[in-house]
């Protein structure tokens, strides 16, 4: 198969309805075998719409306001509408932690995003976005908290010790609001090409978003490979003392490499905790029993053990075949060599 290449076929800026500036990009990946385009397109769309970071206002503090639904003196909009307008302000700048901004304006007139005073490296993208209308010659001061993250952060109830006039903002850290991919076959019917269309909110270009998604995908896959190929379970050190860099460990009472499970680095687990990290998916039980256990909200070997001791599975109408019981009992004997488990 020919070498697979990405190519940007179109990149341009787009204007939004609220004087926002959007970035559009169209990319093509080819050649691919049939089915590969769907896999790659789905993964990249998921990363672009959910894992790319952006900067948003997360908190606003108003001076001399009674509650969120009050209309401040000299301002046309109620507080909750101003908060919603602040939600749509887009910033550029890679920051860490909480940064502060402030709006300090005297009316009458309009407050727009360009009135937000910021410290570097933050800059406003959609500077014409409307925030509030001042109808009288009053001084308006709004203190802002700005953060960088990804995904959505819903508003929470204000703490009781928080001062009046302080309101959290629904933050949508989604710089890529729209991603569409399409698949087009080659004439031979065996190969195909993937087209990916990306629209960003202007805080970064479509190319930057696309390359960022590729880096995240590469960072996810890279840990599975060493210098000589894929890293296998038998190649990993299971003793946390011998590998302090985050390789999963195992219970100190277990020596079998079949009982490999994930746990925090450097943690010594007892049998109870260890069994909670072995899930039904790791047992070679029948599909019908697996579904029955899931319906009963039984997810780990520890759950199975507790239910076998504390409850009667027959009363719960769970059908254990002899082969399934043998598999589970063998696992239990590995962890509790001094105990006797009877298979009836």
UniProtKB/TrEMBL annotation:
GO cellular component, one term: DNA-directed RNA polymerase complex
Keywords, comma-separated and alphabetical: Chloroplast, DNA-directed RNA polymerase, Plastid, Transcription
Pfam families assigned: RNA_pol_A_bac, RNA_pol_L
Name used for this protein in its record: RNA polymerase alpha subunit
GO molecular function: DNA-directed RNA polymerase activity; protein dimerization activity
A biological process from GO: DNA-templated transcription
SUPFAM superfamilies referenced in this protein's UniProt entry, alphabetically: Insert subdomain of RNA polymerase alpha subunit, RBP11-like subunits of RNA polymerase
Domain of life according to the entry: Eukaryota
Natural source organism: Annona reticulata
InterPro entries for the chain: DNA-dir_RNA_pol_insert, DNA-dir_RNA_pol_RpoA/D/Rpb3, RBP11-like, RNApol_insert_sf
DNA-directed RNA polymerase RpoA/D/Rpb3-type domain location: 24-223
